[in-house]
């Protein structure tokens, strides 16, 4: 053990000052830049370098789903991605889900109407996941909803009202589409 | 839970990637990162350098031919899962992919990365193994094709040399009159399986079983492939085949299940999967 | 009367910010703060022989490293024993940083402060600690055998022995026509909120004051502890619980070592410091709960009536006892549930092990007690060949028997007297909702298709709203806004909404005008905390009482302005008016102005309160005797004893005859928490509790090996249920008001979790015909039960 540790040290700690890299990405429609070490997680870049603390960190090993954001529209775990890898991509966080004028998105409205959140810590991850799910599958069946949110942990709601919120959001989206057509 | 420091290269061509790996052979390849980054965050891995291949566009490929499906090193699980063409040529791929973690993880994780991670509890190694697929590896020294049987050396240990990059995997197509099934039992939906089986059954012109094979995950240090053609007999005695499997396997125990239960479960899943595969083979033969 | 708000499913007022990423959780604060990280013991039991920090000092960005030796005076003292109890004869607590010996994996050994968390972890990794490993005590059996000791000076590893009895249980059992004897086991789980713990401290050197944000369930307790340890006047310490990402009990413990060390270092360094617990730390350095072994002897008659019950509870409390023995006290008292047990004796033995401390997790000992009693009911029914629901019915306390004295002392040191309830109705409703009576046919129909179904149920009583007190402060400002504050904290229960509902109803104001603050010592300094399903009962009633004071005052002032009798006045939509005459009216914002006689006006409205505008007689003082300026009031609610909620759950499960996988097909809850303030919020609480209960019944456990290593310290291996594991939960309510408090309410926070293990065990046993004595039940465990039953017919249970 001791020896292996020595090796690691020599390899990585020749100088504890780390190299840093320029990262430039689009976050919620805005061009953002930062200079960070290679190991900076995307979740930490968003929260600490860019001040977008709506993305939460619940496990940092990719299981809880709290840190889910949209990367080029697809939900991904921001704790399982390096900020440098995300450079050049487009990221949407919970702060970017509402309309530019602040009107909550149908998914956000549905979660409020259906009491789909309690402590709110897992909520941003659910909102991003569900936003993408409904874009892909506008009228999900119960099983599709369960499968769609199956990678997000919630410790408060027992998922009952989150599932209801997803169906409700689908209704709201369908209704606004109908109104748009009419 | 923050990664230790590491050197970082982000090549944009395969040659650059191979050069980077050659320059620092103890470096690790970062593709989807869905297995590697948790290990980094927990500081269970401390590679001196990461070679991030996410910008190597030439690896982001999925080729479906009559003979099989070739998946490039940067093709994400979701892309392969959604490919109707791939599912038509080798249905086992999509069937297994649906069991890989959760949709959000599949958006990022790669098929080849999962193979190169060589987790014996993972789905894709068992699929590659039961299909006798191959992995193509490249380095500055050249390219080689590694058969699945040789690729999985031990838990988390693929047969890749220092400086070598797994550039693609090849999943051969199902022969005619062949059915497949994938089944696993996990504690929670999306978890690594306690045990799982990928079954392939082929019938001959007289609708007798000409080949029955099963690839297992979760029960041994590397994916286990058993040829059950003899045990099942020409008329497909799947109960006998399952009994044979129960007698043959020597499962490992972990905190989620003991060896005895895994042995039992492996038998149950074997029988169910073989039955389902055989039924599919029969449908195809009758078409 | 205004718009009815009490009892309505009012949408939550906290959601707006939480849905848009504008919540402020602990780690969202202090962007420029230094980061703390901890070196934690990798051994379950070891002597520290040397600590060498020199390598850590090389890390660029390191600010400080501390070990026990660096902690001065009270900072280095043992952590407090929060709830001393006479039976806890050998209470032991740890040091903020380990001194000489570590007693569980994860115990903090050194604290590192660095520029950011990455660097802090780099430095922590480089602190070299030499340990001399000592033999570890893991598990209740090993602790009981006491071949090794966790603490050298605690013989037998026994922290406490507590006996409670009513009647002569031994004699009653001896005389009973039927006697059964058996052992039950429940494994450890944990609260596991998705936000871990965290502390962020800011020292103001000029002011000599400290502001601390903590993800806590008890901000006033944290403040008291910090002030004492740091030698600061309480008035110089502010503690704020910001948005908290779930608690479920674990965050009631205080002060955590980090809650002392981070503020101390912030003052010492005169720098902002933040520690955000990561998930791996949470598994090994926060707290667990549930682990118990229970030895049961029960005597009963031919109708299934319990004549005598004797339970010996061995409770694993981990390496230290900062929270005392509350959990096993709750187990041994709440075990009685809704039943009249002839004679009862409970002996609690609380044991040390070299594992993480055990402190309340939602349910706090009740799930174990209910598991014991409900398994006992099922045993009796199977033994006699009776319907399991009928056996329960035969033992229930009847609605006309309240208040019902169980003859024991509850966790608050007060008599265990149930205030109200209707238990037969709960049972009837639960049976109806789950389809109990028609289940035989359903089971047979499923069996004919090769499917194996079972049904189970469980009934429980939950003491809620324990004292000693909570307070509320209500202030109506000159814009008509109502500011409500209470000292206890929120972790997602919707307090901002339900307390606003109470205030709106009491004051007659629109709920939109009410603004609620919780858990902020700047706003309210006296409080106990959020635990034991007490927030609504305690703070809800305190706020109601404070509102009534404010209302009375508003009516007095308005009466003077309107030249009316206060008894003729009412408040509607924020306007005080003569009952039946809306023209004679004055808005509360004006009353607020008038309540504060001014010399200096700051706008036109306040000009009405200046000395030349107010028409009080010149012979009287501007503020009448006994009055105070301002339209505000403060009051406290301090109940004589707890109020007892109750419920019944039932479930239908399906087990796979081959793989032994267990699926819950239906789950029904009937719940009685007295008057409902907000049924939507109450249902949400129940849903979440049931899901945690299902976690505990089928998935979650802490897998320690014999050396005391926690083998599943990650979300990969500690199996909290996802949406795919939780069935649809049907809920029904009964409202039996509590006679003990002004609002007639009872607590609801823990209800969902309490009987779930008992219900699932009952249902799986019913499906399988094989005795279930231990939870959680994995497919492997069920498979093993089947194998054992095949060899040992005594494990097979009789049909009803």
From TrEMBL, chain A:
<comment type="pathway">
    <text>Alkaloid degradation; nicotine degradation.</text>
</comment>
<dbReference type="GO" id="GO:0051537">
    <property type="term" value="F:2 iron, 2 sulfur cluster binding"/>
</dbReference>
<dbReference type="InterPro" id="IPR051452">
    <property type="entry name" value="Diverse_Oxidoreductases"/>
</dbReference>
<dbReference type="Pfam" id="PF01799">
    <property type="entry name" value="Fer2_2"/>
</dbReference>
<keyword id="KW-0001">2Fe-2S</keyword>
<keyword id="KW-0560">Oxidoreductase</keyword>
<dbReference type="GO" id="GO:0016491">
    <property type="term" value="F:oxidoreductase activity"/>
</dbReference>
<dbReference type="GO" id="GO:0046872">
    <property type="term" value="F:metal ion binding"/>
</dbReference>
<dbReference type="InterPro" id="IPR001041">
    <property type="entry name" value="2Fe-2S_ferredoxin-type"/>
</dbReference>
<feature type="domain" description="2Fe-2S ferredoxin-type">
    <location>
        <begin position="21"/>
        <end position="97"/>
    </location>
</feature>
<keyword id="KW-0411">Iron-sulfur</keyword>
<dbReference type="InterPro" id="IPR036010">
    <property type="entry name" value="2Fe-2S_ferredoxin-like_sf"/>
</dbReference>
<keyword id="KW-0479">Metal-binding</keyword>
<keyword id="KW-0408">Iron</keyword>
<dbReference type="Pfam" id="PF00111">
    <property type="entry name" value="Fer2"/>
</dbReference>
TrEMBL record, chain B:
<keyword id="KW-0274">FAD</keyword>
<dbReference type="InterPro" id="IPR016166">
    <property type="entry name" value="FAD-bd_PCMH"/>
</dbReference>
<dbReference type="InterPro" id="IPR005107">
    <property type="entry name" value="CO_DH_flav_C"/>
</dbReference>
<dbReference type="InterPro" id="IPR036318">
    <property type="entry name" value="FAD-bd_PCMH-like_sf"/>
</dbReference>
<dbReference type="GO" id="GO:0071949">
    <property type="term" value="F:FAD binding"/>
</dbReference>
<keyword id="KW-0560">Oxidoreductase</keyword>
<dbReference type="InterPro" id="IPR051312">
    <property type="entry name" value="Diverse_Substr_Oxidored"/>
</dbReference>
<dbReference type="InterPro" id="IPR016169">
    <property type="entry name" value="FAD-bd_PCMH_sub2"/>
</dbReference>
<protein>
    <submittedName>
        <fullName>Xanthine dehydrogenase family protein subunit M</fullName>
    </submittedName>
</protein>
<dbReference type="InterPro" id="IPR002346">
    <property type="entry name" value="Mopterin_DH_FAD-bd"/>
</dbReference>
<feature type="domain" description="FAD-binding PCMH-type">
    <location>
        <begin position="1"/>
        <end position="176"/>
    </location>
</feature>
<dbReference type="Pfam" id="PF00941">
    <property type="entry name" value="FAD_binding_5"/>
</dbReference>
<dbReference type="InterPro" id="IPR036683">
    <property type="entry name" value="CO_DH_flav_C_dom_sf"/>
</dbReference>
<dbReference type="InterPro" id="IPR016167">
    <property type="entry name" value="FAD-bd_PCMH_sub1"/>
</dbReference>
<dbReference type="GO" id="GO:0016491">
    <property type="term" value="F:oxidoreductase activity"/>
</dbReference>
Automatic annotation (TrEMBL), chain C:
<dbReference type="Pfam" id="PF01315">
    <property type="entry name" value="Ald_Xan_dh_C"/>
</dbReference>
<dbReference type="Pfam" id="PF02738">
    <property type="entry name" value="MoCoBD_1"/>
</dbReference>
<dbReference type="GO" id="GO:0005506">
    <property type="term" value="F:iron ion binding"/>
</dbReference>
<keyword id="KW-0560">Oxidoreductase</keyword>
<feature type="domain" description="Aldehyde oxidase/xanthine dehydrogenase a/b hammerhead">
    <location>
        <begin position="20"/>
        <end position="135"/>
    </location>
</feature>
<dbReference type="InterPro" id="IPR008274">
    <property type="entry name" value="AldOxase/xan_DH_MoCoBD1"/>
</dbReference>
<dbReference type="InterPro" id="IPR016208">
    <property type="entry name" value="Ald_Oxase/xanthine_DH-like"/>
</dbReference>
<dbReference type="InterPro" id="IPR046867">
    <property type="entry name" value="AldOxase/xan_DH_MoCoBD2"/>
</dbReference>
<keyword id="KW-0500">Molybdenum</keyword>
<dbReference type="GO" id="GO:0016491">
    <property type="term" value="F:oxidoreductase activity"/>
</dbReference>
<protein>
    <submittedName>
        <fullName>Xanthine dehydrogenase family protein molybdopterin-binding subunit</fullName>
    </submittedName>
</protein>
<dbReference type="InterPro" id="IPR000674">
    <property type="entry name" value="Ald_Oxase/Xan_DH_a/b"/>
</dbReference>
<dbReference type="InterPro" id="IPR036856">
    <property type="entry name" value="Ald_Oxase/Xan_DH_a/b_sf"/>
</dbReference>
<dbReference type="InterPro" id="IPR037165">
    <property type="entry name" value="AldOxase/xan_DH_Mopterin-bd_sf"/>
</dbReference>
<dbReference type="Pfam" id="PF20256">
    <property type="entry name" value="MoCoBD_2"/>
</dbReference>
């Amino acid at each position: 053990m001791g020896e292996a540790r020595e090796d690691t040290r020599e390899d990585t700690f020749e100088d504890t000052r780390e190299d840093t890299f320029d990262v430039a990405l689009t976050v919620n429609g805005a061009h953002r830049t930062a200079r960070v070490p290679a190991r900076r997680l995307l979740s930490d870049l968003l929260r600490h370098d860019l001040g977008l603390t709506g993305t939460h960190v619940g496990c940092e090993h990719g299981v809880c789903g709290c840190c889910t954001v949209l990367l080029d529209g697809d939900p991904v775990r921001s704790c399982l991605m390096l900020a440098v890898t995300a450079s050049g991509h487009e990221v949407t966080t919970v702060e970017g889900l509402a309309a530019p004028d602040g009107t909550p998105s149908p998914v956000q409205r549905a979660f409020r109407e259906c009491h789909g959140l309690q402590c709110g810590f897992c909520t941003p991850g659910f909102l991003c996941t569900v936003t993408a799910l409904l874009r892909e599958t506008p009228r999900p069946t119960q099983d599709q909803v369960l499968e769609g949110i199956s990678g997000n942990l919630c410790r408060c709601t027992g998922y009952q009202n989150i599932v209801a919120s997803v169906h409700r959001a689908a209704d709201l989206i369908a209704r606004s589409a109908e109104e748009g057509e009419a | 839970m923050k990664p230790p420091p590491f050197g970082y290269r982000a090549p944009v061509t395969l040659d650059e990637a191979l050069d980077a790996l050659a320059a620092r052979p103890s470096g690790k390849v970062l593709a989807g990162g869905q297995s590697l980054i948790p290990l980094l965050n927990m500081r269970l891995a401390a590679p001196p350098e990461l070679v991030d291949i996410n910008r190597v566009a030439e690896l982001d490929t999925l080729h479906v031919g009559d003979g099989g499906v070739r998946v490039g090193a940067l093709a994400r699980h979701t892309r392969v899962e959604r490919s109707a063409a791939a599912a038509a040529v080798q249905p086992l791929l999509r069937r297994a992919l649906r069991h890989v973690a959760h949709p959000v993880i599949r958006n990022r994780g790669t098929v080849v990365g999962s193979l190169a991670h060589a987790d014996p509890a993972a789905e894709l190694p068992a699929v590659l193994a039961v299909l006798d697929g191959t992995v193509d590896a490249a380095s500055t020294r050249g390219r080689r094709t590694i058969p699945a049987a040789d690729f999985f050396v031990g838990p988390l240990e693929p047969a890749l040399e220092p400086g070598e990059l797994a550039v693609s995997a090849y999943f051969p197509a199902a022969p005619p009159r062949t059915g497949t099934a994938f089944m696993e039992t996990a504690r929670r939906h999306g978890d690594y399986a306690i045990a799982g089986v990928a079954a392939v059954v082929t019938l001959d012109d007289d609708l007798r079983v000409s080949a029955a094979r099963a690839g297992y995950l979760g029960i041994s240090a590397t994916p286990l492939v058993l040829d059950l053609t003899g045990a099942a007999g020409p008329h497909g005695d799947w109960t006998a085949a399952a009994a044979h499997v129960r007698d043959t396997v020597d499962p490992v125990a972990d905190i989620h299940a003991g060896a005895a239960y895994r042995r039992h479960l492996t038998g149950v899943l074997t029988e169910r999967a073989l039955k389902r595969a055989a039924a599919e083979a029969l449908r195809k033969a009758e078409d | 009367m205004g718009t009815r708000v009490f009892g309505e499913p009012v949408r939550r007022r906290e959601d707006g910010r939480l849905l848009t990423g504008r919540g402020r959780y602990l780690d969202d604060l202090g962007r420029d703060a230094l980061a703390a990280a901890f070196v934690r013991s990798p051994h379950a039991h070891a002597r520290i022989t040397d600590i060498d920090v020199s390598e850590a000092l090389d890390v660029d960005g390191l600010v400080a490293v501390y070990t026990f030796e660096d902690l001065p005076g009270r900072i280095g003292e043992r952590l407090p024993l929060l709830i001393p109890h006479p039976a806890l004869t050998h209470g032991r607590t740890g040091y903020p940083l380990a001194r000489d010996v570590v007693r569980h994996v994860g115990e903090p050994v050194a604290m590192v402060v660095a520029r950011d968390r990455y660097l802090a972890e780099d430095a922590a990794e480089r602190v070299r600690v030499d340990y001399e490993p000592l033999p570890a005590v893991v598990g209740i059996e090993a602790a009981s055998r006491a071949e090794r000791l966790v603490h050298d000076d605690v013989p037998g590893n026994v922290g406490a022995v507590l006996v409670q009895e009513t009647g002569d249980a031994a004699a009653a059992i001896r005389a009973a026509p039927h006697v059964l004897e058996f052992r039950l086991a429940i494994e450890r789980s944990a609260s596991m909120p998705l936000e871990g713990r965290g502390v962020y401290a800011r020292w103001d050197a000029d002011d000599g004051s400290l502001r601390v944000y903590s993800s806590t369930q008890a901000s006033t307790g944290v403040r008291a502890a910090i002030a004492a340890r740091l030698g600061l006047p309480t008035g110089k310490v502010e503690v704020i619980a910001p948005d908290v990402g779930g608690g479920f009990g674990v965050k009631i413990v205080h002060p955590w070592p980090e809650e002392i060390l981070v503020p101390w270092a912030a003052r010492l360094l005169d720098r902002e410091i933040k520690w955000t617990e990561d998930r791996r730390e949470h598994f090994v350095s926060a707290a667990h709960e549930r682990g118990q072994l229970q030895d049961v002897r029960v005597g009963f008659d031919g109708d299934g009536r319990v004549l005598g019950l004797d339970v010996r509870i061995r409770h694993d409390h981990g390496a230290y006892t900062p929270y005392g023995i509350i959990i096993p006290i709750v187990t041994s008292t709440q075990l009685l549930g809704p039943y009249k047990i002839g004679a009862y004796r409970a002996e609690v033995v609380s044991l040390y092990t070299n594992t993480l401390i055990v402190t309340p997790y939602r349910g706090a000992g009740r799930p174990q007690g209910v598991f014991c009693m409900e398994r006992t009911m099922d045993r009796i029914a199977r033994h006699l060949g009776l319907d399991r629901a009928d056996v329960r019915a035969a033992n229930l306390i009847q609605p006309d028997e309240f208040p019902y004295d169980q003859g024991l002392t509850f966790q608050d040191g007060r008599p265990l007297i149930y205030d109200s309830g209707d238990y037969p109705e709960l049972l009837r409703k639960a049976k109806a909702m789950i389809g109990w009576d028609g289940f035989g046919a359903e089971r047979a129909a499923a069996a004919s298709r090769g499917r194996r179904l079972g049904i189970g149920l469980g009934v429980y009583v939950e003491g809620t709203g324990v004292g000693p007190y909570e307070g509320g402060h209500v202030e109506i400002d000159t814009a008509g806004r109502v500011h409500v504050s209470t000292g206890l904290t929120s972790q997602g229960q919707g307090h901002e909404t339900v307390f606003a509902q109470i205030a709106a109803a009491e004051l007659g104001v629109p709920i939109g005008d009410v603004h609620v603050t919780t858990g902020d010592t700047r706003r309210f300094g006296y409080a106990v905390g959020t635990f034991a399903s007490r927030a609504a009962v305690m703070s809800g009633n305190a706020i109601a009482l404070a509102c009534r004071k404010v209302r009375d005052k508003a009516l007095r002032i308005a009466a003077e302005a309107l030249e009316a009798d206060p008894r003729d006045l009412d408040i509607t939509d924020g306007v005080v008016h003569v009952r039946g005459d809306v023209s004679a009216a004055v808005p509360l914002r004006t009353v607020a102005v008038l309540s504060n006689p001014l010399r200096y006006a700051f706008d036109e409205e306040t000009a009405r309160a200046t000395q030349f505008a107010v028409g009080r007689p010149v012979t009287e003082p501007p503020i009448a005797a006994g009055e105070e300026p301002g339209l505000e009031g403060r009051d406290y609610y301090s109940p004589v004893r707890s109020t007892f909620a109750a419920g019944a759950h039932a479930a239908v499960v399906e087990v796979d005859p081959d793989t032994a996988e267990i699926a819950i097909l239906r789950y029904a809850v009937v719940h009685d928490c007295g008057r409902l303030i907000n049924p939507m919020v109450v249902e949400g609480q129940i849903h979440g509790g049931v899901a945690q209960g299902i976690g505990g019944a089928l998935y979650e456990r802490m897998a320690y090996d014999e050396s005391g290593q926690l083998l599943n310290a990650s979300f990969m291996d500690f199996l909290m249920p996802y949406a795919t594991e939780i069935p649809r939960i049907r809920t029904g309510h009964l409202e039996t008001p509590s006679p003990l408090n002004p609002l007639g309410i009872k607590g609801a926070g823990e209800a969902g979790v309490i009987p779930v293990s008992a219900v699932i065990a009952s249902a799986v046993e019913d499906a399988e015909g094989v005795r279930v004595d231990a939870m959680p039940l994995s497919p492997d465990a069920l498979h093993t039960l089947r194998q054992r039953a095949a060899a040992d017919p005594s494990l097979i249970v009789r049909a009803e």
